[in-house]
Specification:
Layout (H helix, E strand, L loop, with lengths): L2 E3 L9 H12 L6 E4 L2 E4 L26 H9 L3 E3 L9 H6 L10 E2 L27 E10 L8 E5 L5 E6 L17 E5 L2 E2 L5 H10 L2 E8 L4 E10 L9 E5 L5 E6 L15 E5 L2 E2 L6 H10 L3 E7 L13
Parallel strand pairs: 6-12
Antiparallel strand pairs: 1-4, 2-3, 5-13, 6-11, 7-8, 9-10, 9-11, 12-17, 13-14, 14-15, 15-16, 15-17
Organism: Seminavis robusta
Protein name: PDZ domain-containing protein
InterPro entries: PDZ, PDZ_sf
């Protein structure tokens, strides 16, 4: 539902009647709206000083210090708004995103404390061109899944390299395979399985270990040409509503950092550490996000997996394997 400011007001119908009628008239056109669960919520396009933050529907503690009392009251009352016909729209959803320049600074966001957000949530302003800029892959990458039984399919092939290392030879794109969304590539060297070093192990021993392991399974690989300051970790959710145990925080400037990792959550076995700077979440670069709240929204609304690329704090060292 789209509005513009009325200059004069004369004998308006009650707000509830006007908004209800306008919504019924516009809902079929799906003009600039967001989907949350099974409901369609119209986005209100206003001048910059009256812009309503889309994050308000998700975060319970969003500051409204950016608008004065009269402005906030006029938006709440709706007394100076009238429906704008779709043909008169002069701005797009991208224009709306650019107007949110007064975002609250959040100290920390516990992803798992968010109320249930449907996996159908449409995140504002994300398009293919906004996906992660080309950067070197991380030197170390991990994938954590929950393996229900010994018969569960992983979808990863291994081979012995010329140097004797065990390397990823193939990855299945079958969504039923647990590692189908792992950030691995052909040629990556297998480092560890559940913190057990794979150095010196043969293909038969590794295959047996992968097959017999049930429950939480974490595989770590090394990309020899990768950036040693970066790590990339993927966790696969058993269900769309599964908790991740990850906390994110807004740091100085636009940086988003890992603020906490639940020791019983899936990211506890990943390569992430507290204070790491998050560079992207599920291929969405953090410079395209409006703070830690939106990063949390991406994580909580992901249906199958969450992949985080992070830059390690200088004094953080990723544990990729334990000595036998």
């Amino acid at each position: 539902m789209i509005f513009r400011k009325r200059r004069t007001i004369q004998q308006q119908k009650p707000l509830e009647d006007r908004q209800g009628a306008a919504m019924r008239e516009q809902i079929g056109n799906k003009t600039c709206h967001a989907i949350v669960g099974e409901e369609e919520i119209p986005t209100i396009l206003l001048k910059a000083e009256l812009a309503i933050q889309p994050l308000d529907m998700f975060a319970a503690t969003v500051s409204t210090n950016h608008c004065d009392t009269n402005t906030c009251k006029s938006v709440a009352d709706g007394n100076d708004l009238v429906p704008l016909a779709p043909g008169e729209v002069q701005s797009s959803s991208n224009d709306c995103i650019g107007k949110y320049s007064h975002l609250p600074v959040l100290t920390a966001v516990n992803v798992d404390s968010f109320s249930a957000v449907s996996s159908q949530t449409v995140l504002y302003g994300y398009h293919d061109e906004n996906k992660s800029k080309k950067r070197r892959r991380a030197a170390f990458l991990s994938a954590t899944v929950v393996k229900p039984s010994t018969e569960s399919k992983l979808g990863m092939g291994l081979k012995k390299g010329k140097d004797g290392s065990l390397q990823v030879s193939s990855l299945s794109n079958n969504q039923e395979c647990l590692l189908s969304e792992a950030p691995f590539q052909t040629g990556d060297v297998l480092v560890s399985i559940n913190n057990q070093s794979c150095t010196g192990m043969n293909l038969s021993a590794v295959g047996k270990l992968l097959k017999q392991t049930t429950g939480v399974l974490t595989v770590v690989v090394q990309n020899s040409t990768g950036d040693p300051t970066l790590v990339e970790s993927m966790i696969r959710k058993p269900t769309p509503t599964s908790k991740t145990g990850l906390g994110v925080a807004q740091a100085a400037g636009q940086q988003i950092k890992v603020s906490s990792i639940n020791p019983k959550g899936p990211f506890a076995e990943s390569l992430l550490s507290r204070r790491d700077t998050i560079l992207s979440v599920n291929d969405v670069p953090c410079e395209c996000l409006m703070g830690a709240t939106e990063a949390a929204n991406i994580i909580v609304s992901a249906e199958t997996s969450v992949t985080v690329v992070a830059q390690r704090q200088s004094d953080n060292a990723a544990v990729v394997a334990m000595a036998a």
